[in-house]
Amino acid sequence: MKCYVCEQEGKDTEAVAICIVCGMGLCKDHLIHEELDMWVGGYPFPSEKLDITLPRFLCKRCYDVLNAVKGKKVD
């Protein structure tokens, strides 16, 4: 699989990850990697933060949209 962003720029770069929202193939230069905290507990609030995290790979567009939805400032 090739990086979609690089392909649009006329480059031929192998993808190393896939955006979990839109499914776009991404190279290491175009992916955004975050580690999400994991919580356990019952309704209505999580009660304990776990020592493990969940990896999340996103393209820039999906990252910006998700952060705008969460009320964060988008560059």
From TrEMBL:
InterPro entries: UCP037465_Znf, Znf_FYVE_PHD
Protein source organism: Methanosphaera cuniculi
Protein's name according to its UniProt entry: Zinc finger protein
